[in-house]
Amino acid sequence: MFRNLLSRLFADEPGPAPLAGQDAEVAIAALLVRVARADDHYHQSEQQRIDRILARRRGLDMAQAAERRAAAEMIEAEAPDTVRFTRMIKDRIALEDRSGVIAAMWEVAYADDHRSQDEETLIRLVSGLLGVPDRDSALMRQRVRGAMDQNNL
């Protein structure tokens, strides 16, 4: 279903076309998977959090969300380095969606109740690459952490 996403995502063309619908969500989910794997521990709690994020973002049921996450895991494993991968995504997703992506990344980073420097460093890198200011990312982190502490997420 998403077999050609990498070739579309990394096509060497001037003025890259925006990703839409499922392609955009799988590319974003691949970034979430990359964050979860950043500390070399990809926990079930992180997988479940990614599924919930995908379900919430697009009104999917959990089976559809898990299917998109599985596709994202394959995409993430094949994707190039984080800098190139993120830049390609930035060029193809709407500006207003980028802050939501960063908030989702913070959710994944805290899903296993373990604060990982590797995950936080990756999120800060990706925030900058997506054009989200550090201050905004820090505010999102605080909001996500507070909501998770209250079990609202």
Automatic annotation (TrEMBL):
Locate the Co-chaperone DjlA N-terminal domain: which residues? 26-142
Q: Which domain of life is it from?
A: Bacteria
Q: What is this protein called?
A: Uncharacterized conserved protein, tellurite resistance protein B (TerB) family
